Amino acid sequence: MLPLPSMAFFWAHATSGESPSAHFSMFPYSQTPNTTSIYKMENLKYRIIYEYEFHRGTSAAKTARRINDVYGGGVAKENTVRFWFQRFRSGNFDLQNKPRGRSETKVDNAELKAIVEADPSQTMSEIAAGCGVSDKTVLIHLKQIGKVKKLERWVPHELSAANRQTRVDCCVTLLNRHNNEGILNRIITCDEKWILYDNRKRSSQWLNPGEPAKYCPKRKLTKKKLLVSVWWTSAGVVHYSFLKSGQTITADVYC
Question: Which domain of life does this protein belong to (predicted)?
């Protein structure tokens, strides 16, 4: 801050109609301040004038008029001057602004882990809204608790434990026969596959690095689809064909 005699010298020349820059410079010639510095120094300059006029006993309205007469209308607002005068009357002559900004928001990692594991399919925005923080803050804490995002795995159907066990038993039986008789090398297999015009996407989940992704049933048949029939052996694909629109799978089609 400028000492009061220097400020009085500056303001006396300013109010006399002379250019203030002829007697006072806010920066040395060797320095080139940036825009932010200039803005802060300009505000500080006016606040020094507020304090000077306050000590002289000038009213807030008259102080605002005198500053605007010198620097141009709108530079000093009467309400702003009144605010600073009230601050001076309370004994506070600090001309700097009080620090602003929200207090740092903390997320409890244990609580966040419980929220995520209760419903792993939540999006980052949903978790952030529930915790009252930003998406970026949630992402930082998810990394801290070791959660990563994984897509669901497609499975043909939702199978019960009995369904899965039956399939395992059948596979084991066929493998045993193949090891004894080599039956798989003599089999030609045929199957059909619907190619669906359904671009539904799988959802992501926040999981531990070694934890497998959750299952998601495959898409149901829709009106827009195309059927492909494929024949293959253990050596590879033998033949494939696409079913024409309106055609039905019959024995004649296979033959």
Answer: Eukaryota
